[in-house]
Amino acid sequence: MRCEDVSLLLSESAESDSSLPRSIARHTDHCLRCQAEQAQYRKIRRTMLSMRGSHVDPGVTMVGEVMMLVRDTDVVPVDQQSGDRRRVAYVAAAATAATAATAAGALVLAARVKRPAS
Amino acid sequence: MRRSDHSRGRNVTSEPDSESQSSVEDELSELVAQARAGSESAFKQLVEATYRDMYTLAIRLTGDEEDARDVTQEAYLKAHRGLSGFRGDARFSTWMYRITANCAATYVQRRSKHRHDQLLDDATVVETRLDADPEHYSDVVDLRTRLNAAIGELPPKLRSVVVLRDIYEMPHEDIAEELGISVTAAKVRLHRARHRLRAEVFPRLEEVDSHAV
């Protein structure tokens, strides 16, 4: 058996103290390289677990930022906001055009009514 | 490029010991119940109790302080909206870890691929607890520093799996679900990540040929 063949199991064995399968253990018992590799995986695992005890403080403003976001029930993603803005612009333009057309029509009608019959 | 902001008073602290941990979780459960009933004050207390942990996870996954802030905020927004669906069969912090991991994965995927990922330098996350043996403490700090640097060098896909599994002890199934991959893929990525970390942190063994005695 080659060292490469047991590498995956050595990596997995870092998670627990459970013994390796017999065939693998037979190799590692006589292979200093694999023993060292297994010890290193376990050391890395232990160190990483201990990292959980440390944390970075982003500052107290974080709580306020979160609560502001939560309170704002109308909060929408930026992409959607820009889409909404475009929709509003289209509706406004259409409404303006409709108003202008109505006004123009009213003026034409008014002009016809006021024109004296010849 | 990683940005740093010291003006926000960022500093590094360590968690309370395990004895007080369970009572903290009991308090959180009570707060969750109140928040589910509509108490904004209770939700704020939940945020206050957990935001450092969630931000730390986010910064470990995104590698960027500003991105981590966005991810953390998004995670709490999702949590607030999903509180009614939280059945309480898991700890609130565990539930929040999953949401944060999911938000971070989505964020990293969205992020421009041209942007350089750089995680955790020595000053970002370090253990502040003192050890009785200075030599041992020095070794631990040295290893942690090298590990942080090595984690930062991992591609985001590998980094997220190894961080969630080896730091936060998240089950393979949960990792797979939150990252949107199969359990097998999660395990394969985990092995690749561990292999890379070991090669980076202990490079000498890689150069040594196999020896049998």
Q: Can I get a quick summary?
A:
The complex is a heterodimer of chains A (about 120) and B (about 210). By secondary structure, chain A is mostly helical.
Secondary structure elements and pairings:
The complex is a heterodimer of chains A (118) and B (213).
Chain A: H1 3-13, H2 22-28, H3 32-51, E1 54-57, H4 61-71, H5 78-114
Chain B: E1 11-14, H1 18-36, H2 40-62, H3 65-82, H4 92-110, H5 134-153, H6 156-167, H7 172-179, H8 183-201, H9 203-207
Helix pairs in contact in B: 1-2, 2-3, 2-4, 2-6, 3-4, 4-7, 5-8, 6-8, 7-8
Describe this structure in words.
The complex is a heterodimer of chains A (118) and B (213). By secondary structure, chain A is mainly α. Chain A folds into two domains: 3-51, no CATH class; 77-118. Helices cover 73% and strands 3% of the residues of chain A. Chain A has helices spanning 3-13, 22-28, 32-51, 61-71, 78-114; one strand at 54-57. The model of chain A is unreliable at 74-83 (pLDDT under 50). By secondary structure, chain B is mostly helical. Chain B folds into two domains: 22-114, Rna Polymerase Sigma Factor, Chain: A; 120-213, Winged helix-like DNA-binding domain superfamily/Winged helix DNA-binding domain (Arc Repressor Mutant, subunit A, Orthogonal Bundle), CATH 1.10.10.10. Chain B has helices at 18-36, 40-62, 65-82, 92-110, 134-153, 156-167, 172-179, 183-201, 203-207, and one strand spanning 11-14. In chain B, helix 2 (40-62) crosses helix 6 (156-167). The longest helix of chain B has 23 residues, at 40-62. Chain B is globular, with a radius of gyration of 19 Å. The model of chain B is unreliable at 1-10, 120-130 and 209-213 (pLDDT under 50). Chains A and B meet through helix 1, helix 3, strand 1 and helix 4 of A and strand 1, helix 2, helix 3, helix 5 and helix 6 of B. Strand 1 of chain A pairs antiparallel with strand 1 (11-14) of chain B, so a sheet runs across the interface.
